[in-house]
Write a structure and sequence with these properties.
This protein has 3 domains: 2-41; 50-173, MutM-like, N-terminal (N-terminal domain of MutM-like DNA repair proteins); 184-307, Helicase, Ruva Protein, domain 3, CATH 1.10.8.50. It is 34% helix and 18% strand. It has helices at 2-23, 30-41, 50-63, 78-82, 91-95, 189-196, 203-207, 218-228, 241-266; strands at residues 69-74, 83-85, 102-106, 109-113, 118-122, 127-133, 142-148, 152-158, 164-168, 296-298, 305-307. It has a 5-stranded mixed β-sheet with strand order 2-9-5-4-3. The chain has a 4-stranded antiparallel β-sheet with strand order 1-7-8-6. The two termini are 34 Å apart. It binds zinc ion (ZN).
Length: 320
C-alpha cells in the first residue's frame, strides 16, 4: 500500500510540475507533456461509470446468474472494511447455498439479487470485480471471494478499500441508493429539461450529481460535454433550449458508443477499465479528434477536467 501510494504521488508531482511550467508560460515540448500524461494515466485512479458497469453487468448476467454460492470468504483485513452486513447476521452463512437470481446496474451500483437478500456493490474509486478460475492466483487486495457452483470465483478487489458491498433485505437502507435520479437511457428530453431546472451552477458539476441523473462521473461528463460542444464550466442558467437538447443527445450518443467500445475491449476481463478510446478525458495536450487543437486541462487528481477550447468555447475558467 505504502509503495503504491508513493508511486501515485511521484507521478502526480511530475505531472504537476510539467503542468505548472505550462501554466507559467514555459515552453514544454508537446511530446514531453503527452509522455508524462500517458505515464500518469496508467496510475491515476478513475471511478467506473455507467459504460464499464453496464458491460460488467452483461458479462455477469451470462456467467453468474443462476449459479449458487458454495462458499463466501471475507479476506482479512480489508474484507472487514468493504463488507457491510446490514442484516446484522452471518454474512458467509447467509450467502452460502444462495442462488444468484438476477443482476442489475443502477447508477454506479451493481445489485445482485437472491431469494430474500440483495448484495449491492458500490465500487467507488478503487473497487473492481474479477472473474477467475478457482486455482488462479489471487490479485493483491482481494477482499471477498465468492466460490460459485460453475467453478468460477467472483472476487472483489479494491486497492484502497474505498468501495462497499452491502448485504441487505432493504434496498432503501443502502447509502446514496434510494436518492438516485433516472438512468440516462430512460429519460425523455422533456424530463431532462424539467429536472435540469432545479439545478444551478456549472453544467459539468450537475451532470455528475447522482440525484440529477445516475451513472455519470468525471470522465464521461467530459466526454458528453465535448460531444455537445459545451464548455464544462458554463452555468446551467446560461444554456439555451437548443444547447440543452444538444446536451441530451450527446449524453445518449456518447454513453451508447462507450458501452459498445468498452464491450469490445473488455471482453470477459471485468476488472479492466478500457478508456484509451475517449476523445478528451485524460488526453491533455493531444489533438482534439474534431478540430485538432490541443486538449486543455483544468483541475488535478480525481477532479481533472479536459475539454477543447476551440470546440467548447465560453465559460470562465475556474482558478485561472
Ligand atoms: Zn476541438
Amino acid at each position: 500500500m505504502g509503495h503504491r501510494l508513493t508511486l501515485i504521488n511521484t507521478d502526480f508531482l511530475i505531472f504537476l510540475s510539467v503542468f505548472t511550467l505550462a501554466l507559467a508560460g514555459t515552453q514544454v515540448p508537446g511530446s514531453v507533456f503527452i509522455g508524462v500524461q500517458n505515464y500518469f494515466r496508467s496510475s491515476l485512479i478513475q471511478m467506473p461509470e455507467l459504460p464499464e458497469l453496464e458491460v460488467v453487468r452483461d458479462v455477469l448476467q451470462r456467467r453468474v446468474v443462476g449459479t449458487t454460492i458454495e462458499r463466501a470468504e471475507i479476506v482479512p483485513p480489508g474484507g472487514a472494511i468493504v463488507v457491510r452486513d446490514l442484516t446484522h447476521g452471518n454474512f458467509g452463512a447467509a450467502l452460502t447455498g444462495a442462488t444468484i437470481s438476477a443482476i442489475a446496474r443502477r447508477g454506479k451500483f451493481l445489485v445482485f439479487s437472491f431469494a430474500t437478500l440483495y448484495l449491492i456493490l458500490n465500487p467507488k474509486l478503487t473497487g473492481r470485480l474479477q472473474l477467475a478460475a478457482r486455482g488462479d492466483k489471487r490479485m493483491a487486495k482481494t477482499h471477498l471471494v465468492l466460490a460459485l457452483s460453475s467453478g468460477d470465483e467472483l472476487r472483489y478487489v479494491d486497492q484502497k478499500t474505498m468501495g462497499q458491498l452491502y448485504l441487505t433485505r432493504d434496498l432503501t437502507a443502502v447509502p446514496d441508493f434510494a436518492g438516485l435520479g433516472p438512468e440516462p437511457f430512460d429519460i425523455s428530453l422533456d424530463e431532462f429539461r424539467a429536472r435540469l431546472q432545479k439545478y444551478r451552477g456549472e453544467i459539468k458539476g450537475i451532470l455528475t450529481r447522482g440525484e440529477f441523473i445516475a451513472g455519470i462521473g468525471n470522465a464521461y461528463a467530459d466526454e458528453i460535454l465535448w460531444h455537445a460542444r459545451l464548455h464544462p464550466y458554463r452555468k446551467r442558467t446560461q444554456l439555451t433550449p437548443d444547447e440543452i437538447a444538444r446536451l441530451y443527445d450527446a449524453m445518449q450518443r456518447a454513453l451508447c458508443a462507450a458501452v459498445e467500445q468498452v464491450r469490445a475491449e473488455m471482453g470477459e476481463q471485468i476488472h479492466l477499465k478500457p478508456r484509451d478510446f475517449l476523445a478528451v478525458h485524460l488526453k491533455t495536450g493531444e489533438p482534439c479528434p474534431r478540430c485538432g487543437a490541443p486538449i486543455s486541462l483544468v483541475g488535478a487528481n480525481q477532479r481533472i477536467t479536459n475539454f477543447c477550447r476551440t470546440c467548447q468555447p465560453g465559460g470562465l475558467i475556474k482558478g485561472m
